[in-house]
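pinned: reference chain
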Amino acid sequence: GVDALRTLNADDELVTEWTRSGSGWVAQASYTFDPPFEIVGRYSKLYAFADTDPRLVDADEIGAGVNYYINGHQFKIQTDWIAKVPTEDDFKDAAHVVHLQLDATF
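pinned: its structure tokens
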């Protein structure tokens, strides 16, 4: 397969755009209480293929979230935290991200 696309930019410089190819799996569990309050946990694993983007490395991803359903899935507040840990690194080297979302469907 193609591992990278090589093109010329506007300045006639060679630019390499790597493919980001890999495989993996995700395991997720959640529990919804009454009133409609949900907790979520997730663990996933990424295996980067050889000859793909050198920045794409094997990684573990750990996540947790909380959702509050004001009007079912049509109006809800969601928040989550995700830590992406390169496999060869320690958890203290993880990249952390937090999302907060208000989802309203009309």
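why pinned: The longest strand covers residues 22-33. The radius of gyration is 19 Å.
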